[in-house]
Specification:
- This is DUF4220 domain-containing protein.
- InterPro entries: DUF4220, DUF594.
- This protein is mainly alpha-helical.
- Helix 1 packs across helix 2 (47-71) and helix 2 packs antiparallel against helix 5.
- Strands 1-4 form a two-stranded antiparallel sheet. Strands 2-3 form a two-stranded antiparallel sheet.
- The protein is built from 34 helices and 4 strands.
- It starts with a helix and ends with a strand.
């Protein structure tokens, strides 16, 4: 055999010896990564982090399953006595099988990468049965001695419990299970048959009977709103308590269940008295709890049996580690085990214990634990947990990314140039994703914007008096704002078209007004301008990159046609420098006395010059009034989009840093606005008044 052949053979021998060792260490490293970084994604919009977590999530299971399959086959290196190998190396490596079950059980911070993974819980159950069977086969095949058998039994207990815990968490977070667990107790209502029987007997007795109906909801609703109007700051403990209490009620919205009017009045009474900052904090905590329910083991570990299992796995893993080291250091078969394998086994034990202890610490310092202890009146423990929460999860830290994406049509049209790369991406159908990534940036959701949305919603809540008003407000997307400001006659046409068209019209008009307005630097106007542009660019981002979160329409077609017309216009005008200001003023320079549709028909869905007409109408208003109108129209459009978005799409955004639209939707629900309530439901108090003839 030549030198190259011997070199390759020795290299292959080293690989065969180290392959399973590297697999075990890699599996442990992936578990560490998932434990520490999986929970970050609910506060981070980074695509890189999301990609790394996705790869780690998939690789963690794949490597563990492959390693179990590897262990099921005894590979004896060349030149090694098979009997000696089976007695030593294979025997201690067989102890690694339950560790792989432990790794397949995953970490508390992530059971499902996306909410669709929860629907695959039956597949995970089948995998649990097969992998446990394979691990038992691997272990029994090695004919373990007493020094390996004792710790292995305890590790099997930990591994099976952890794997079962993950499967149960997936089942608990599946849509069908969530819905069935949240359906309220059947309510037959007042006894109609008995009441009508009494009414009939009364009439037959010759008595005059009159039925008087008293509605249950009106007095309660009025009292609740009256009590809640005055804002007051409450302690952070009350904020957490309110969030935990309302989460039990409002999590039903994520599975398309509706709420009763009693729940609406209670929620209104609380939120109308909270400051805007505390109202948003309650919403943030609730959405964080919902993320935990859908993507982690929270629904399992924060139960009495979950806590029991956690103590069991910690105790059994600690016992296994202690037994292995005591028996090994006593000298039982010490000389027959490979020193490297012993070190790796101890690394696996140490890693398992550290992960378990850290997970228990996270479980204790959580809103779930604090709420449970507070509800049981364990004041000392709940205060201790609260102080820990304040230290590790301070009130000032946002529970979601607190970012809003920005996409600008004029800037995109000026910067989007055809290249070989973009042509290739177009052929592959990936250009839309590329454009969304390249031309989208994120900004902080400003405190002023949050205050504005809260105040507008609160004003509507206080002013709305009946169910019809609620329904009307839910369907307004600029009409109410224009009517209140007195400009519906001049500008109403722009909000009566399809919603995606309204977004494009007002987005372009907002940009045109911004670039043509010399008063933007005015300190009194600047906040209005900043908020308006932020909402405008955010709504366009939703139209382009999150069309599923908006009502059905042809938004992407309309956006594409508008971009095509804008590019043609800028190209003919010779716009060489990609500056949005001059480009916007060029658009405004076009005469738009006649509606574009009357000139060019409606085959193209472009709204570029319709938006120009809208901008010119807005520019006729004084600057301060103009930006007030633009601002409140965008708030109304934002609320309309939030209310009309399907709940499962809101749920999907929780794992990607959250979405402002979801926060607004949940805030609206807590303020009693939306289509989630049986506004006119409730038991009517019927009284039978009898008078003698």
């Amino acid at each position: 055999m030549d030198v190259n052949g011997r070199y390759m053979e020795s290299l292959l021998a080293v690989w065969n010896e180290w392959e399973i060792r590297m697999l075990m260490l890699t599996s442990l490293a992936l578990q560490v990564f998932l434990l520490f970084f999986a929970g970050i994604r609910k506060r981070n919009v980074s695509a890189v982090l999301s990609l790394l977590l996705w790869l780690a999530y998939l690789l963690a299971d794949s490597i563990s399953i492959y390693a179990l399959g590897y262990l099921s086959q005894t590979r004896v290196p060349k030149g090694v006595d098979p009997r000696s190998f089976k007695r030593s190396t294979h025997r201690i490596q067989a102890l690694w099988a339950p560790f792989l079950l432990l790794h397949l059980g995953g970490q508390d911070t992530i059971t499902a990468f996306s909410i669709e993974d929860n629907e695959l819980w039956k597949r995970h159950l089948l995998s649990l049965l097969t992998q446990v069977g394979l691990a038992v086969y691997v272990f029994t095949k090695s004919h373990p001695g007493a020094d390996i058998l004792a710790p292995a039994v305890f590790m099997f207990v930990s591994g099976i419990v952890k794997y079962g815990e993950r499967t149960w968490a997936l089942k608990c977070a599946s849509v069908d299970n969530l819905r069935s667990g949240m359906v309220t107790t059947p309510d037959p209502g007042p006894n109609y048959a008995k009441f009508m029987e009494e009414y009939r007997f009364t009439r037959e007795a010759g008595l005059q009977a009159e039925i008087v109906i008293e509605q249950e909801r009106r007095a309660e609703a009025a009292a609740a709103v009256a009590v809640g109007v005055a804002e007051e700051s409450v302690p952070y403990t009350e904020v957490i308590a309110d969030a935990s209490r309302f989460f039990v009620i409002f999590k039903r919205l994520f599975v398309n269940l509706i709420l009763s009017f009693q729940e609406r009045t209670r929620s209104q009474a609380t939120f109308l008295r909270l400051t805007p900052e505390q109202a948003y904090k309650v919403i943030e905590i609730e959405l964080s709890l919902m993320y935990d329910t859908l993507h982690s083991k929270a629904a399992v570990i924060h139960t009495w049996y979950g806590r029991l299992f956690r103590c069991l796995t910690l105790l059994s893993t600690s016992t296994a580690c202690l037994l292995f080291n005591v028996l090994h250091h006593k000298g039982m078969h010490q000389s027959s085990y490979n020193h490297v394998d012993v070190c790796i086994t101890n690394i696996l034990f140490g890693g398992a214990l550290c992960l378990e202890v850290y997970a228990i610490g996270m479980m204790l310092i959580s809103y779930w634990t604090y709420a449970a202890l507070r509800s049981c009146n364990f004041c000392f423990l709940s205060n201790l947990i609260f102080r820990s929460i304040q230290y590790f999860r301070p009130e000032s830290r946002s529970k979601w990314s607190n970012l809003m994406a920005q996409h600008n049509l004029i800037s995109f049209c000026l910067l989007d140039k055809p290249t070989m790369l973009t042509k290739l991406l177009s052929v592959l159908g990936l250009k839309g994703h590329w454009d969304s990534w390249l031309h989208t940036r994120h900004i902080d959701v400003s405190h002023e914007l949050k205050i504005l949305v809260f105040r507008e919603l609160k004003d509507k809540t206080v002013s709305i008096v009946d169910a019809e008003s609620y329904r009307k407000f839910s369907n307004h997307r600029g009409q109410w704002a224009l009517q209140c400001k007195g400009y519906y006659k001049e500008l109403g046409w722009s909000v009566e078209v399809e919603f995606d068209e309204s977004i494009l019209l007002w987005h372009i008009a907002t940009d045109l007004c911004f670039h043509s307005d010399d008063d933007n630097g005015d300190a009194k106007i600047a906040p209005y301008v900043g908020i308006s542009r932020a909402m405008s660019n955010y709504m366009l981002f939703l139209l382009v990159a999150r069309p599923f979160m908006l009502t059905a329409g042809i938004g992407q077609i309309r956006f594409g046609d508008t971009c095509a017309e804008a590019k043609n216009f800028f190209g003919r005008a010779g716009t060489a420098h990609p500056d949005a200001g001059p480009a916007a003023r060029m658009v405004l320079g076009v005469s738009a006395e006649i509606a574009p549709r009357d000139v060019k028909g409606d085959r193209s869905k472009s709204v570029l010059f319709d938006a120009c007409r809208l901008a010119k109408s807005l520019l006729e208003l004084p600057p301060r009034k103009r930006w007030r109108v633009i601002r409140v129209v965008w708030v109304e459009m934002l609320c309309y989009a939030a209310n009309k978005c399907r709940s499962n799409f809101h749920a999907k955004q929780l794992s990607g840093g959250g979405e402002l639209l979801t926060v607004v939707w949940f805030l609206m629900a807590h303020l009693g606005i939306g289509e989630q309530y049986r506004i006119e439901a409730g038991h009517a108090r019927a009284k039978l008044i009898v008078e003698k003839n």
